[in-house]
Amino acid sequence: IFKMSHDCHGDDEEDVEKSPEEIQLEAEIRAIELDMALIDLRRELQAQEELLERWEESIRKLKEEREEAEIYRLHTDEDRRDERALKADFRQAQESVVLLRERVQRLEALRAEQDIST
User: String of b and e for 97-108 (b: at least 16 CB within 10 Å)?
Assistant: First the structure.
């Protein structure tokens, strides 16, 4: 007895078994895509870390200027509020970089697992 699949035209890809070569090729494609994502994330992480370093240096210089201004009583309440806001923004940026670094590490671990399984 001839059984017809639920797709009369035979175009249903799920009904077709993939060859080992196709499975291997798809795994290699996923690995390449993951490598590309890792390259992009590493580049972004490096840029963010460099930005944080420059920002930290700017905050350090601002602190020196503030200390000098306080000597001459030129530092206002608005200056203090701006400085607190700047420091809060800096801390938030640091946290974002930590999260980005963790994401890179997770993807690197995933990529290492793929290398082991292939």
Answer: beebeeebeebe
pTM: 0.69
15/71 Cα distance (integer angstroms):
80
Phi, psi values for residue 3, rounded to 5°: -100, 135
- Cβ neighbors of 26 (< 8 A, separation 6 or more) are 18
Q: What does pLDDT average to over the chain? A: 84
3-state secondary structure of 85: helix
Which among 18, 21, 30 is positioned nearest to 115, based on CA atoms? 30
Q: Compute the distance between CA of residue 82 and CA of residue 72 in angstroms, rounded to an integer.
A: 19
CA angle 28, 25, 18 (to 5 degrees): 140
DSSP code for 14: G
